[in-house]
Every structure is written in structure tokens, then in C-alpha cells.
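Record type: ASSEMBLY
Status: queued
Input:
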Amino acid sequence: MKLTFPALVAAAVMAAGPVLADLVVPNLSYRTGPYGANGTQYADGFNDYFTLLNERDGGIGGQIVQVPECETAYNTEKGVECYEATKDTGALIYNPLSTGITYQLIPKVAVDKKVLYTPGYGRTSAKNGRVFEWVFNAPANYWDGASVAVKYLLDQNEGSLEGKTIALVYHNSAYGKEPIRTLQELGEKHGFSLTELPVEAPGQEQKSQWLQIRREQPDYVIMYGWGVMNQVAIQEAANIRFPMENFIGIWWAGSEIDVQPAGAAADGYKSLTFNGVGMDYPLYDDLQTHVIDPGKASQGGQHVGSAVYSRGMYAAVVIAEAIRTAQEMAGTAEITPEQLRDGFENLSITPERLEEIGLPDFGPEIAMSCENHGGSGMARLQQWDATAGQWTLITEFTEPDQEVLSALIEEDSAAYAAEAGITPRDC
Amino acid sequence: MDQFVFAAEVVLNGLMTGVMYALVALGFVLIFKASGVFNYAQGVLALFAAMTLVSIQNGQVPFAHLINAALGTQIHHFGWTVPAALAIALTALVMVGLAFLIEKLVLQHLVGQEPIILFMATIGLAYFLEGLGDVMWGADIKTLDVGLPQGISDGIEAATAQWFGYGFFIDRLDLWATLIAVLLVAALVAFAQYTKQGRAMRAVADDHQAALSVGISLRFIWVMVWSIAGFVALVAGIMWGTKSGVQFSLSLIALKALPVLMLGGFTSIPGAIVGGLIIGVGEKLFEFTIGPMVGGATETWFAYVLALIFLVFRPQGLFGERIIERV
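Status: finished
Output:
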């Protein structure tokens, strides 16, 4: 038999690709490049939870979950290439951990009918399911984060921020600019003034921004950073002796690797989070038995329990629960992306369910619908204890100011719908 | 008055930042001067050197992931820590070894090729070293502590508060970087002027063929220059890595050196320093005065604009060799 080259390629792709009956959840990860240290930990947590389900439970509903990885290096073009290369392998859902890649994939997933899940990142107004049918961003988005931070500061100031100044130090990118409008609106509502301080990526040099902070002495600094920008900002804040307890990062500026380079000087730094911290959860016993001990953990399990690992694992938990819901609704274990979308729109993760999973109080309660793809938006604060070398949760889950945010989401999603020619669905 | 005092603080900090840029630019200059090669991998050399230093300090096992994957073991550390001075010396040796390998495996095979070919080879080298560093030492961010102090200088703050009524911020790490840069430049100049090897290096820089005709070994000079550039990269890696932790982004500090080189000239050690100072002060002052009117984040692009303005008047850079071609 004579085999042609295309036939050989097709055979190789079929042999290397996932078995079509499996549940395919591509992991568009980045383990290289300037953000590789963060991306590696997230990808490890994401992989390990699905490995646990496969090893302990035989997958979800009896279907093994395949998690093929594709390296994006946090590069938008590579991310799109990864999407194109994997979308016909039976892929159900994508979670690229990049706002830039997300913006490129939003129109594509609507055409290809794939689910895009962007927990804590991506396009904030995707919360409006009437416009963004295929995109979900629960449990919280960038605007939720800004609002929860302001609510925390209100609590710290007996309910008033009148006359206070907040400086926003942000990554000068689509991601970093996300909270500006929200903070401006909240500033008008609560009487604080906002100073915007962009930092050019990657953020290795921030002297100008921190000299300005030292001159103007804002009461608080909120940071939307990622990668090296976080480490440098925390070090510069320590250098100018800015009080760390008045410095709050978004959840992407709240990992161990963000604070450790500054050593003891980072003590007291705060950040938002929507997932639990540490390893004091029953799930980790199962992870140890079924994944780490048998040597099946991603990267040898060296990042298990870190903040970013936990966030990657939490994303996998939500996806797994949505798959489970979809299977129950469809009456079959072999679901399609459309059925997974329905699963997400009917997803309910209660505190009781989190306890059953082995992660009590690990995340906020999630209840989604056709209209609401973003959940409650609840987040909490954690604080770095440099002596113990760990994060400590310092607040309960707090709901953001929906009065302000709902109007902004409606406005932004309506603008996108007009621009993309989308007629909002009836929900 | 306030604005004047603030501007003075910005200028001082700009000078200090400029020194940090110059430390990176120096490595480029050394290699370009001696071999005419623009070493695209200089930023990655700084990353590789810093990763090696911190890993030696912490007693990390090289290629631990590969070893563990192949043998099913779980070794990551030797269980010892190495004093900073010894670790720096060992890293310098590693950089000499790397220079030898680069000459042996890359440059030797490209003798007589066009500069663009050598430039392309250094691009390949950069990507290879990035990957090698990851495989050898892992992609995690590593905290680097060689005992350099960080944070505001209380003495300067108190003195300026007394003189101007406003205490200036000067980072102690930047003061150390300035001192080290001065010593480094003095040592490099002394080496080039007063040692046999230094004179040989200058001879090669002036004319390869003439240097070869009097018995100077081009291969030895290349190994020596890449070793020195590796050591300069180590110093730059220590300074930048102390602030941010050692991570991939260190390789991107090369981008900060490019406008410095354009401005100071690719062949002048003093040019790298002066260029660094001008870029540092220029970008910080521009951000201070014009930045707030245009939304900030002007430093990256303004450094290049400033370099381009200088290029219009002096294409070879402030201290570069004048290009004379007879037709």
C-alpha cells in the first residue's frame, strides 16, 4: 500500500490527538516568556485537578478528560494559533489566561460554537450573556475586583472615602486599563480622587511612577499588574516606605512570587482573591494520594498549594462542575460545546457542593443563568505574612457595587453588540 | 520652587537609572568593539548569569527536572548554600566556560562571514540560552540576595530635606550600582590600555587582518571578550535581579540598552555610560514634565525618540567612530 504524505500527516494527527469520545479541554498555557513563572503555576493547577478526576473517578460521568497543552508564551498571535490548531480535536472549552488572547477569541468562539471561560480576566462585559452567548467569566471580573477593593477601603474608613486619594498603578495594556472607568465612577460616588499611573510592559523600570506616588502621597494604591511589574512595584513601594497595608493588588498581583523577591519589606501587602489559599483543604489529601504520590502531578507537583496554582485548579473545578451539569441536563456523558454552554448557564456551585468537592469556602457561591455569565462577582482580601511566608484571608467574600457595575456592563456590552452586529438574545 | 526641587530629584534618579541602563549597554559595546558583532543575546546572557548565580547560591541541582523525569527521583537541592562572593566567582567561571563554548561551537564556524550572519547567530544563541536556562534552573522567579542594600538612603533624604525642605529619594541599590559601574569602567579601561591582552583586544578591534598578521589569536580574543561581556552581564543581572527577582523579564532589559547604544555609539565604553545617563535623565524628565499631559507611560518610546534625534546629527553616536568611506 502506498501512503501519500497528507495521509501520513492525517494519521499522525489522529494518533496524537485525543480520542474523540473523551472530553477535550485544551490548556492554552504559557510556561515560557516573561509571564512563564505565573503561567506555569496556573497550568499545573489546571492539569492536576483533571488528572485527579481521571485517576480517582475515571473522569467526569465516566468520560476521561483530555487536557492537551499548547504553549502560547502569553503571545496573542500564538494563542490564536493554538486555538485554531485544537478547535477541531473535539475541544469543548478554552481558558487562555490572557486578556489579549481572549479579545481575539471572543468573535471566533461565537462562530465555531466553543465555550470560552475567563475567570477573573478577559472582557468584563462578557458577563452579559444576552450579548456574549459563548463567554463566561464567573466568579469575578476586573470591575468586580475594583469595586470590592473600594468597598474594603470604605469599611476601613467608616463608610466614607470623601477627600481621599487613590492611585491606580496599572499595566499599560487592555487588561490594566479595565478598572479605570469603574474607579472613576466609584470616585464620583464616594468622593475620592483617582490618580492614574500607567506602567509600560513588562514593568522592569517604575521609578517615575513611584517618585510621583512619594511626592503626592495618595492614601491608597491599587495595582493591576502582571508578571515582573508586580515584583518591581512591591519593591519600589517598600523602597519609598509606602505603607504596605494601604497597597492592594488585583488577584493577578497576589501570588507568592509577587511578594517574595521583596522579602520582609513586602509584609502586610494585600491583594484581592476569589479562591482560597494554602493547602488546608481535604481535596489536597486526594491530590496527594492519586496525583502527587504516583508521580502524575504536572511539573512534579512543585507548585501545589501556591496562590496561582490554586486559581488554575479552581478554574478546572468550575469547568468540571459545568461539564457535570451539562451531562445531567443532556442525559449523556458525551456532551457537545452547545450542551456545555447550557451547563454553564445552569451552573450552581453552592457552599455545600464545594464542601463535597473537598474545598470548603474555597470560592464564592456561583449561580449562573442565560443572562448572567459572571456570577455574583464576589471576592475577598488576603494579606501577605512575610514571616510565615504565606497569605492570610482577612475578609469574607464581599459582593461588588452592582448598582454602578450593572449600568457599566450594560453600556459596554451594548456597544460591543452594535459594533459586532449582534442582536442580544432573549433570556 | 517645589517643581524645581522635584525636578532635581527626578534628574538625580534619572542619572542613577541611566547607570543601570549603561551596565547592560557595556556588554554590547565590548563585543561589538572587538568583533563587529551586535550581540542580540546580551540581555539573555544577563538572565542566564543571574539564574546561574542564584541557583549556585541556593544549592539548586541543575537539570533537576530532567534528572527526576528520567530516574524517577525527587532531587532538587544539594542541601547547601554557597556564600555570595564564592557564588559570584563560580558564576564568572561558568560564563568563561560559556564564552569558550560559544566561540568553539558558533563563532569559529562563522569566521569571515558577513556581520549580519553573526548577528543572526546571536539571535539563535539568545533563544537557545533562554531555553537552556529554563531547563537547567527552572522557570520560577528566584529571589537574589548578594547583600546589596535596597531602599531609600536616609542620609541623602535628611541632607536634602535640610537644604531644600524636601527629602530626596535615592535608592541605596542605585548608589551601589553607580559605584560598581565606575569601578567596572575603570577596570575595563585599565585592562584595555595597560595589559597585553587588552592591547591585543584593541588591535583586533582596529583591524582583524593586521592583528592576525602579528600573531594575535583571534579565537583567544573572542573567548576573552565574550568572557568579559559575560561578567558585565552578570553584574547587570545582579543589579536588575536584586530589584525584581531573577526571572525571564531580565532578558528584556536589553531593550533599554538599545537607545543608549544608538546615542553613545556602539564602540565606546565612555559612550555607553554617557549615553545611559542622557537616556536616563531624558526619559525621566520627559515623563515628569510632559507625561501627565499625554497620559503617562512615555519612557519607553521617548528613549528611542531621544536616541533618534541624536542620530540625525551624529549617525555614529556621540562617541562612536566616525565612518569614513573612500570611493
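Annotation: The domain at 2-313 of chain B is CATH 1.10.3470 (ABC transporter involved in vitamin B12 uptake, BtuC).
Annotation: Chain B has a mean pLDDT of 91.
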